[in-house]
Amino acid sequence: MKKTFVLVVLFVLPIVAYLFFASGVTNFGKLSQLTKNVAELEFSDSTKFKDKITVLGFLGADVEGRKGNAFNLNQKIYKRFYEFTDFQFVMMVSNNTIEEVNALKKELATLADNDKWKFVYASDEEIKQLFSSLKTDIELDKNNSTPYVFIIDKDLTLRGRSDDEDDGTKYGFNSTLVSDLNNKMVDDVKIILAEYRLALKKNNAERSK
């Protein structure tokens, strides 16, 4: 009986563990391309989506009212991933919110290095046009603001879930809900970062041949 148990531990369990993690990697590597050709930030000279992995948010004219959302994102997502190359947070804000944005930046700086928080000032029309290019089932409020944030890849494609258990097609993540950030957005950011790391390793391997 002891010999049988030892054999199971030595041979069967490693195989089961391998199959479990292998299936996990397969699932881990899937993040749907929901909307291609998201509009580029043509009205910004310093911040672009191209060649960056972007978490995009819309604070609009309600910067003060969305501070809680920003802090949730900072603690749950930004602090975890900001050291990755080509990763950035882009928050769209209305042109008349400079003082509120500066105050928010100072508060964020006390929590973590905030260099990769990018606040892009835009007119109401520019904000609406950019949001419209995402082609989601989410709407901006009267302040051109939303608690939802979105993942844009390096090729200006909105990434998300096409078969989410709760939302069906999940275009964005509700930053009011810490559970949405912890249970879903963390995983999806991991996926897209892993995707680009694997692509980089593959390219480097092919160049070294």
Highlighted features:
Glutaredoxin; globular; alpha+beta; 22% strand; 5 helices; eight-stranded mixed sheet; 209 residues
CATH architecture: 3-Layer(aba) Sandwich
Give me the number of helical elements: 5
Based on helices, strands and strand pairing, what is the structural class?
A: alpha+beta
Q: Ends: how far apart?
A: 51 Å
Largest sheet: 8 strands, mixed
CATH class: Alpha Beta
**Percentage of residues assigned to helices:** 40-55%
> Which superfamily, in CATH terms, is the homologous superfamily?
Glutaredoxin
- Report the mean per-residue pLDDT as an integer: 87
Apparent shape:
globular
Describe the structure.
The chain has 209 residues and is of the alpha+beta class. The chain has one domain: Glutaredoxin (3-Layer(aba) Sandwich). It has helices at 2-28, 67-81, 98-109, 124-134, 178-207; strands spanning 32-35, 53-60, 87-94, 117-122, 146-152, 158-164, 168-170, 173-174. Strands 1, 2, 3, 4, 5, 6, 7 and 8 form an eight-stranded mixed beta sheet that branches. The longest helix is centred in the last third of the chain and has 30 residues, at 178-207. It is globular and about 45 Å long.
